[in-house]
Amino acid sequence: MTWLSPDEIEALHLSLSVAARSVVFSLPLAIIVAWVLTRRRFVGHSLLDAFVHLPLVLPPVVIGYLLLVLFGTRGPIGSWLERIAGIELIFTRNGAALATAVMSFPLMVRSMRISLENVDHGLEEAARTLGAHAIDRFMTITLPLMLPGVLAGAITAFSAALGEFGAVITFVSNIPGETRTLPLALYSALQTPGGDTAAARLAGISVVLGLSGLLLSECFARRVRRMLGR
Amino acid sequence: MLSVSVKKRRGTFMLDAHFDLPTPGVVTLFGRSGCGKSTLVNIIAGLLDADRGRVALDDDLLLDTELGLDVPPERRRVGYVFQDARLFPHMSVAGNLHYAAKRAQGQPYVSFDAVAALLDLGFLMDRRVHRLSGGERQRVAIGRALLSQPRLLLLDEPLASLDTARREEVLPYLETLRDQLAIPMVYVSHNFDEVLRLATHIVLLESGHTIAQGGVGEMSLNPRLRAIIGADAVGAIIDGTVLGGDSANGMARVRVGTGELWVQAANAAIGAKLRVQLLARDLIVATQSPRYLSVRNSLAGKVTTVSSDDANSDLIGIDIGGTEIMARITKAATRDLSIAPGLPVWALVKAASLRARVISNASPDAE
Question: Is residue A2 part of a domain?
Fold first, then answer.
């Protein structure tokens, strides 16, 4: 990658690292939310469903703003996190990961739900009559069978996380080496006189990453489907 | 003893079922589609809640709504063989069997190898589930249920999705199960042939209500059963003991009541239990001891009942020495022969028209 400048390589690294953190942290929560939304009926079901999908319809800058309010140094959660665990989110790459996680969360949940809806509830009942309790059933039957959706969701979310712009720049700003991910670097390049070629290169990388993500996701899904004999 | 008494409302459908099964034994829940058989079985398994009721197996309560007791399915130790097998698609046959074996509770009474041998699963072990035929699938499902070491086995129309040939392939395994493991079974079916081959007891269900129940022998002549299986399938089912035979011709001599019957049954050992079905439409009634006939079987008895079957025929109940059989004859014949209760008669039947099967585990009250 000698044709990339050190700054651009840094932006690429940072993007991958932010996206990876974002997926790792949101994956377990997304699985639980997908399961609750698919398999449980309760008061407030529609509200939770709408809430999860909110980032799809809100302007990303609104999400960034809300994160600032909640997770900023003076925000209720942000100040608590800093006091308890010394975790600072604002202007850090962990903050960037949080912003991308919130933005890609609906994509992840969506893909898992579709997959979970195709898991025959009768198989869980069968496991139950064989003596498997709730957590056992989930880990040995439900989760393996919804795996195609989990993988596809994770890969899609990862690809989307690489490209998140609005929420990131609002929440954690555009700090080189800390929060300047690919799209932010691309934006900065466009603002700089003579940054056209750099912008083109960064755009190219984004396209390649996005495309590989989607292809990989499809490839995984197909392999898992074959494993499950469908 | 399995004792079930439950109520459940589902929309406009009301299940109100009560039955007892002496254990070990095979009770078949028999009735038309939609009569509530599956609902009842799901309640026994605990997969469905009852509005009110009690399910007890020997001294153990599985459900008692009055006491607020409801043992969850995973702790009931009740095996369940579903109509659609429900094998886990992400595991091999062996994986499915081990899944059950690993989670078995209580004192194991059947080993992995014994189940594999009993159901001929050895050569299927490494097979992926979607590469199994319908019959193989059900055998694996039965094996999986057994390996959870259940105290009771529920089978919900396990053969309903199979064609006749595949059904014949699985039925003998179920017979072996009944005879060798002595595990109580509740078998749901709407196929009377399966009932005939497997059941020791029959519970009749009609639109959610248990309308009649008893041993196979006594139930075989129950008019409510006749309403479901149709006039042509009506007939006494008798579990008799093999007295001797003519193995060269594949014939066996069976004691029924005070009489004897020759039936077609290959390799039936002396002393074995044989279940014989005497279809009412195949019986001929004579008012004098018949002679000069090719018919081998003649049972002497006394008419107990004469009841109208349809516009043209009557059903004649005949006591052949503590056992009742039934013959269908035309109303004209009833009139011409002056057949009435108390009249001594002879029932004739060709050996070839008798259906007989060896059952070693006959219910005592069916004899």
Answer: no
